[in-house]
Amino acid sequence: MPDLTLDELARILRDCAGEGESAGRDGEFADLPFTDLGYDSVAILETAARLKQEYGVVLTDDEVMEIGTPGRLLELARRQIAGAS
Amino acid sequence: MNAAVVTGIGVVAPNGMNTEEYWNATLTARSGIGRITRFAPDGYRATLAGEIRGFDPAAHLPGRLVPQTDHSTRLSLVAADEAVRDAGLDIGELPEYGVGVVTANSAGGFEFGHQELDNLWRKGPEYVSAYQSFAWFYAVNTGQISIRHGLRGPGGVLVSDEAGGLDALAQARRLLRRGLSAVVTGAVDGSLCPWGWIAQTATGQLSAAEDPRLAYRPFDEEAAGFVPGEGGAMLVLEDEAAARKRGAPGVRGRILGHAATFGPKPGTVPPDDATALRRAIELALADAGADARDIDAVFADAAGVPDLDRAEATALTAVFGGRELPVCVPKTLTGRLCAGAGPLDVATALLALRDGVLPPAVHTRPSPRYGLSVVVGRPRELRMRAVLVVARGLGGFNSAMVVGGSH
């Protein structure tokens, strides 16, 4: 299973839910709330489904709703990926 | 009571992707009907449709909206954008809950749903898009238009098949009477995907012809069904006083009257029974405070199915009997657009009133036995004050609307 990078997560978000309202994918992107980036709860659910398909990451609906930012999502996902390998 | 005035028009049609492009195509009889290209139509009974081709959603809509919308929702957003722009509507200057959205739909986001069924079948439940939760839904166009433009007034959707588009405009007019400033209203419809196509072909009313010139010939002795299409129109409907108060750039016309009736249970009357449709037309005239002599032209439902053509001709001649009343069928160039048909006919009627010209029908040689003066071949110049638009839906829905020009 390949490591998940922030760029890769940004790509998945774009694939699932379209280009966000903030184009920047630098450090700032990681810490901006999904809502500020233009991604609503359905967009995050869709992204979580893709993370499961591609990386085997399993997040509960409650976890998904509380994640808040791309950086937090990346952290949770990478912890699971590391734990599995 | 103030009149409901149309201050903005947005059109997406197989023969034109904005109002003036469509109107120009309509007057020059440029057809948008051809063999279906969006999926392989081989093996289906009908193979022709009025498709909107070459539409690039990313060129018209924010990237965020593309993965969560059906083709027909994207088209309805494009039409609503044009209508709001045309009306010069500045939402921020209107009361927060004073602008609503009412659309009509016959099938919802069928193509989106088809793709997700395909994902479910081929890949499994985890691959079904979370956006399926709303992208398929009848009310989705209302919701997306409301979100995109920040319209927080009442929202709704009418589902009465091809009659629904006129019923939506009528509902918008009711909301204005209750005190709303403006309503974005109309319908853009069509589900030209395999899943939608089996639903449409199941009615038995689609033309099986493969030659577009022979396919959709309403009121012709050879009529044998219609060609469906996709598209429609969105309008901005405003209370006349509110429109003046905000300094709306122009009034495109007026909704003067409307009525809807429901036909008797199928099988209890002959299939060409005209009673309920006639009553819708008479009630719409009464609602407009108009006499049959006040109507200068009719935009017909024009089913292209002999029994239904006969019913419409019977209703029209009963109400307008003895007059040379011009009957227009611009939908011979687009196909019948489900709920989108009525609003597109209303938009077309407003353009006809504005320019004093009636668009021609193509491919049909109207039979004298119907007693209708169908405008064919080339446009007919005529100064008009009011026009009747008729729409019928499957299962007995009838709707009639009287529209007037800007003066």
UniProtKB/TrEMBL annotation, chain A:
On whether Phosphoprotein is a keyword of this UniProt record, the answer is yes
Q: Which GO terms describe its molecular function?
A: phosphopantetheine binding
Q: Which Pfam families does this one have?
A: PP-binding (PF00550)
State the PROSITE patterns in the record.
Answer: CARRIER, PHOSPHOPANTETHEINE
Task: Cite the Carrier domain residue spans from the record.
Answer: 3-81
Give the top-rank taxon of the lineage listed in the UniProt record for this protein. Bacteria
Q: What Gene3D superfamilies does the entry give?
A: ACP-like (1.10.1200.10)
> Does the keyword RNA-binding belong to this entry?
no
| Listed InterPro entries | ACP-like_sf (IPR036736), PKS_PP-bd (IPR020806), PP-bd_ACP (IPR009081), Ppantetheine_attach_site (IPR006162)
List, in alphabetical order, the GO biological process terms annotated in this UniProt record: antibiotic biosynthetic process
Q: Which UniProt keywords apply?
A: Phosphopantetheine, Phosphoprotein
SUPFAM superfamilies listed in its UniProt record: ACP-like (SSF47336)
Please state what the protein is called. Actinorhodin polyketide synthase acyl carrier protein
Q: Which organism is it from?
A: Streptomyces aurantiacus
